[in-house]
Amino acid sequence: MASELTNRSPSTALDLLPGTVRHHTRLFPRRRTTPRAARDFVVAVLTEWGETSRLDDMRLCTSELVTNAVVHGAPVGRLVLVRVESLDEKLRIEVHDSGESTPTQRVPEESAVDGRGLLIVAATADDWGVKERTGPGKCVWAAFDRTASGALPVPPYTNGPQGDTS
What is the per-residue DSSP string for 87-130? Predict the structure, then answer.
């Protein structure tokens, strides 16, 4: 990823993970309404692709990851990038922000009203993690196996450009 989050489409040759069939990317402002807007974006993309078998799980993980980016990651005035990828055997949601802190899974006190986001992601997604980006910030991602839901890998997507910024 570029060193700053912009509304320009990144080079697909450098941006795609091996085995990426298709992807959609959107930038969001750092606002309290961003998690809802990001959930709506992810649901719309997955529905367009016909990938609805784990839609509720992916919606929940999107909400948790984007909320963390807005509350703890993205500095004031910065953007949050959400990317949905269809890989050979997985669906993957990435949330990029330019904050320097690295999220860690923790166990909150029973009476705590927050601090469970990554526990929810770890319990819901088939895999998750944090990766460094070129420049400031990090990418926190959640992956969902198609085989776990009974869906088959999709054939390579060859019509039109890979990804968008809409």
Answer: ESSEEEEEEEE---PPP------TT-SS--HHHHHHHHSSEEEE
Candidates 157, 118, 159, 164; CA nearest to 141 is: 118
Tell me the sheet residues that pair with 139.
96, 131
pLDDT at 20: 62
CA 123 to chain centre: 16
Match 């926190």 to its residue by tokens. 140
Q: Answer yes or no: are the C-beta atoms of 92 and 143 closer than 8 Å.
A: yes
User: Residue 116: what pLDDT?
Assistant: 62
For residue 141, which of 33, 30, 65, 56 has the smallest C-alpha distance? 65
**β-sheet bridge partners, residue 140:** 95, 130
Give tens-digit pLDDT for 36-56. 999 999 999 999 999 999 999
**What global pTM score does this model have?**
0.76
